[in-house]
Each structure stands twice: as structure tokens, then as C-alpha cells.
Input
Amino acid sequence: MVKAVMLDAGPLGRIAHPRPNARISSWLLHLLDSGRLVFVPEIADYEVRRNLLLEGLSESITRLGEIKSVLSYVPLNTEAILIAAKFWAQARRRGVPTADPKELDGDVILAAQALQTKSVVATENVGHLSLFVEAKDWKEIA
Output
């Protein structure tokens, strides 16, 4: 059984919607009721928040703040950035980059934060993230 779950930007954005769909709400409540830790990584918060700000979605921004106060927030730290840089270089050397070379590549930063917290990543992008850490489609994490 998965003990800790780290939310990728896709699921986090769905949850941050002022009226999240019943399926993701039920999924999150099930995780919490079963005693699992659910983490909001700072990189996913950034990815979701920047888009909400761009679109002027103030209700979703407020909800995102509320989510961060209820779930376990994982701020970025130097160790995560060093791990992410290592992941990025390893992927490039293997010929499996996860983003354009000029992009920041949030996936490797998220993977580093998941490694630090020993979490499975709940995502809609299993392919890139599973190169570095355990990642599952959020719908498959019971």
C-alpha cells in the first residue's frame, strides 16, 4: 500500500478548482481517511498558481492556498535542486530528455521532491516522472 502521495500539477489543479469533480474529491478524501500523507510540492504549486494567476482565477487561487494549509506542503530546498540537476543530466545522457534543454523542467524537480519524501507521484504524466521515481496515474492510486 502506498503510504505517501505527492501531487503533480495536473491533479493539484483539478483539486484547486472551486468545484472539483466528484471523482478527484472522493479520491483525495479516501487517501486522507485511510491515513496516507498527501504532499503538495512547491514546484507543482508554482506550476498551477502561475496559470491561475495568468487566467485571473481568484477563486481557484484562494482554494489552492486552502489546500496548502490542509495538506503537507513541501518547500523546495537545495538538496532537491541538486538531485533534480542530477536527474536532468542523467536523462540527457540516456537520450530521454523530459523537456526542451532551455526549459526549467519541473518534472525533474518534482521527482527530486518525491524522492526526498519517499512518495509515489500522483500524476497524469507517468511516462516522464517514472524515469526517476515511482509515479502512477492518480486514478490508479487506491
In short: The chain has seven helices and five strands. Residues 4-75+117-140 form one domain. Residues 4 and 37 are 5 Å apart (CA to CA). The radius of gyration is 15 Å.
